[in-house]
Amino acid sequence: MGEIRDFRSGKPGKPPPGEAMPRRLAAIVAGDIAGYSRLMQLDEEGTHNRVKRLERDLVEPTIAEHHGKLVKTTGDGFIAMFDSPVEAVRCSIVIQQNMIGRNAAIARDRWIEYRIGVNLGDVIIEADDIFGDGVNVASRLEGIAAPGEVFISGGIYEQIKHKMVCGYESLGDKKVKNITDPVRVYRVLPDAAAYQRTRRRRESILLTLLGLAIAIIAAGALWYMLAQPRGKLSEVARAPSAPPAAQQPAPSPAPAQTASPAPSIAPTQQTSPQAAPSTSPAASVPEPETIALQGGSFSMGSNDDPSERPIRRVTVKSFAMGKYPVTVREWNACAAAKACGFTATGKDDVPVTNVSWSDAKQYVAWLAERTGKAYRLPNEAEWEYAARGGTQSKYWWGDQMQPGNAGCKDCGGDSAAEQPVKVGSFKANPFGLYDMGGGVDQWVEDCWHRNYQGAPADGAVWSGGDCTSHVIRSGSWKNDARYVRPANRDNYDTNVRYPTHGFRVALSP
Question: What is the dihedral of CA 408, 412, 415, 416, to 10 degrees?
Answer without folding.
Answer: -170
